[in-house]
Amino acid sequence: MNDELSGARCAGSADPDMWFRQDSWREAKAQCMACPVRATCLQQALDFETTDYLRRLAVEDGRGTTIHTEGVWGGVTAPQRRRIIDQRVRNGLVGAA
Known about the structure:
Blueprint: H1 25-33, H2 38-51, E1 58-60, E2 65-67, H3 78-90
Antiparallel strand pairs: 1-2
């Protein structure tokens, strides 16, 4: 985690997988809403996903391959972030990949 996100509520979570399990997204999003670095976290996730709009980076997490940008980041789920990015592309705010 970079210095900008060092104060994130998820950084000290007893259940770090909560942000990646759909059955706990509601709780994760609630934690994000009270997080002091929520806006920075969301912007970094959107920047990363915009850069890799068509090509996603897979990482090995010990349980199999997962998509790095899945889960809740900045209080927003991956499908919600994809809709934000799609809207930005349609509006010409970012170049299509």
